[in-house]
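Reviewers asked in the last cycle whether our approach scales beyond single polypeptides. To address this, we selected a multi-component target totalling 1127 residues and predicted its structure end to end. The input consisted of the following lines:
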Amino acid sequence: MGGGFHMTLFLVRRMAGFAATLFVAALVIFLLLDLLPGDPARFILGINATPEAVAALRTQMGLDAPAHERFLAWVGGMLVGDFGLSTTQRLPVAELIAERMAVTLPLSLIAMVVSVVVGLPIGILAAMRRGKATDTALMVLAQTGVAIPNFWFGMLLTLVFAVTLRWLPTGGFIPWDEDAGAAMRGMTLPGLALALPQASILARVMRTALVDVTEQDFIRTARAKGMTKSEAIWRHGVRNALLPVLTILGLQFAFLIAGTIIVENVFYLPGLGRLIFTAISERDLVLVRGATIVLVVVTTATMLVVDLAYAFVDPRLKGRDA
Amino acid sequence: MALVEIDHLTIGFDGRKAVSHLSLRIERGDRFGIIGESGSGKSLTALSIAGLLPDAAQVSGHIAFDGTPLPDSEQAMARLRGKRIGMVFQEPMTALNPLMTIGEQIEEAINLAGITEVMPLALPDLLDEVGLAAGHVGRFPHQLSGGQRQRAMIAMALASQPELMIADEPTSALDAITQRTVLDLITDICKRRHMTLLFISHDIRAVAALCDRVGVMRAGELVEQGDTGDVFRAPQADYTRKLLAASQMQRRDRPAAATQADGAPLLRIENVSRVYRHGGLWPWRDAPVRAVDGVSLDIAAGECVALVGPSGCGKTTLARMIVGLDDVSAGQLVFDGAAYRGRNLPPLLRAGLSLVFQDPFSSFDPRMTIGDSLGEPLHLLGRLSRAEHEARLAEAIEAVGLSVAMLERYPHEFSGGQRQRLAIARALVTRPRLVVLDEPVSALDVSVRGDVLDLLSRLQVEHGLTYLIISHDLDMVAAMADRVLVMEKGQIVEEGAPQRLFAEPQHDLTKALMAARLPEIAA
Amino acid sequence: MNWQQLGRHPSLAIGLMAATLFALLGLVSLWWTPFPIEQISIARRFLGPATEHWLGTDHLGRDMFSLVMRGTLTSFVVAGLGVIIGIGVGVPLGLAAVAWGGMVEWLVLRLSDITFAFPAVIVAILIAALFGPGEINAVIAIGIFNIPVFARVARGGALAIATQDYVAAARLAGLGNAAIAARHLLPNIMSLLIVQGTIQLSLGILAEAGLSYIGLGTQPPATSLGLMLRDAQSLFLIHPWLSVVPGLTIVLIVIALNISGDGLRDAIDPRLRHEGLNHGAG
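The resulting structure, written as structure tokens, was:
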């Protein structure tokens, strides 16, 4: 059995699963937004629209074609980067989304990095000091952090750092190409607000995973070889404990994107969330459809990356059916 | 001066004593064995010498290594473990780090030992000593067999050229043949290196074969210790005598069974195969695995037939098809004249055969009373009146020597031996004709095995049962079976009466199994 | 679980007591609140905490304590219904995957993969785009989010149970897949489900707050803790008190539920630590 062959096999299977999930997800979105409203053109224009206006929009949206052709045209278009035209703004949906993703994606990444940099060391420290005062204090903090809604924490941060201390802006966003420093400052508070609950969850998961691993036989073996308990945990425990943490990390990035949509509201950031809310209130179904599928792609892609990372870290997954 | 000196060692958890006032001395060059059943405190005693007890343990008493008390600091204790004590644990799969290759893990032990002043101990030499090939270095633990993993563990323990090797049940997770080779390996190394050995086991024969001094532990106390020969020739403690008796299986003879008048077999297995496919519907899936490959055999009413073979030989798969838990891929089964293919076994026929599982701890639903569990198979008989239902339960539980009052209780209230009796009672509740026994005593403590086997032979006579025993325990099989079938890679390779088969094995596997048997203890 | 066990786990006792207290507070608001919730009185707005209005009044002069009581009820009801949907659909799916195996298991796993691709916010967006925002929207979004969580927990727990010999014994006794799932699998994963239910309840309360805050959840004149935060949004720089009260209430409820969840996990069975899922909030 060649490891290379199995690895390729694994990749092919994972990619196929990824594509299949996306296809079904696109189908669900299409069913909900294109077929369920009956006539999307009438839904978009409202009940007071003239039949002529509805007919014109129908032709423009290509609604005269049968449903399966419309679905395939939509999916086919997306594959070459064409997400259709926004019905209200008359602009390509892909362009609108790309512009907003320049805010949403960096914000999620910043929050992710902060939560990993803060959360994992706290979790490791707590596990190493299990049962001692440090552990208890850190876990009380984490327990509180998990319970704080990120958008409310954003409001509190604004109150302290923007209004009282005036260190950072209360909100708004200056595009990256105008002033990268100002853009970064605008992202600091929302990034922290998003990172706090995630860091707390990571700290808790990391601690539990490491405590579990510490009870495994191979830690005892490492100690029998001549390591102290903490050496054994560092050299053998942490790497093994990172496996379950990886899964949570993947789920978290998906949730961070969703959380960003909420936190953008607090800081008046022109991200994907604001685009979607405007689209909903203006009944711009083409735009909603495009934005949701992008969110679904990001979520599913994250899961795929986690799966692949898992296979890379854990030799047991290579060459085995999963 | 003794290498290890333990003085009034007491280990407790939450106030419960697991080891109490234990004192023993292991002289340099001794091969010291500690025998005990599960929960006797033997492993804790071993771990305490290496300072590896769980954090929750409360310890009192003194342990001295080479004349000096064990250091208090973890740092110094770790250095002592790394340089002077080597350890081998029971389950090599979990004792090795799954994310590191065997080579990396052995190298790590060499580096930690830091033995530059003695002589540079190279990885190839160590591998050679434990019988691993250079090709194994780059493998991960899951890519090795159980025996190879245990060899890697031993290599790690030897890396520092330790004065004391502690082996805690090093072979009980391995199959019979591998078990013997690993035991021989440990013996050879100890002799060659003049190393002191502390060997922990529940297997009295393994201890007798390997050790020159022995201690017997029961419920946290050392009930007897001395030279191996003396202890086994003239045991002082009742408990030692009981263990010795249990290790010598007597043949359970019974009156010749009355065969069915027409001579037709009770169970006929006709050319049965079971093939497993992995990898789903993908065109590049793995080659199919033939777990059972064209097996044919007949079992006559009243017979006791045993199926032996190494793990993975297909004996359990065959048993699962016979009782209707799995389907055959090809061939068919005929029970009492009715043909079936496995799971399509009709209810009334199902009532005619039953299965006793290996592990009495997982064979009862912890949330159901014993009565509910025992009553479950009665569904097969259609609707019974309440009185008849209860009469059946009472009959079954009394047949195994337990009382009707126990039907109200829950599984956790019973010991392993009692649970296995209850499992037998459940197997009898439908009054079956054929009972399949899957390793019926191997999960039990040695001292209760004999009682359960006695019960099984008594029931066979009283109820005219037919037994099919699945086991790897040749002594038990020799004591119980009329006919033995040896299975390898899904096929039956040899069959015959146990006396004949064991005296003159023909097939290589049978020969290897016989050679792996540990010698009986001379009484 | 009995009183003695509670005594041995003081944090569990405190968590359960606090969570029950909040739930009761919400329940009482159905019959009694210090002031009628709809009573608007511009003259009495922005009052600080005092003997008459324990937690002050909001921008419309409504009594904050009364609003918190009713808002807590909404949060519990929305999150609770979300858990019921998750258990009602997810657990049978997870059990069926184990009891039947093969194609059924494959289907359940793929279904849960696809549902995982739709975080609660996206589901809420889709529903809101079609039918407009509302409490039902939040319930469905949270419920759909919970389905794969419970399906996976039930499957994970049941897989461990299914390898036990007593399940094989039940098959020998002629029990079918459904009977095995109901008689042996479900009762033995109950503690796992209770623990996960507590965790999902707390996540649901956070999710309801988020959805109502961005306007996809509860709508006026009804109130919820998230909606109170939405109302306070434009005023919080001048009147931070209005956002501190509902925010702190959410934090306390979620902490109480999480402590109960952790405590239950330790008290019922220490082994569950390995199997429980720990999901981030949507």
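Chain C touches chain A through 43 residues (CB under 8 Å). We regard this as preliminary and will revisit it once experimental data from Aim 1 are available.
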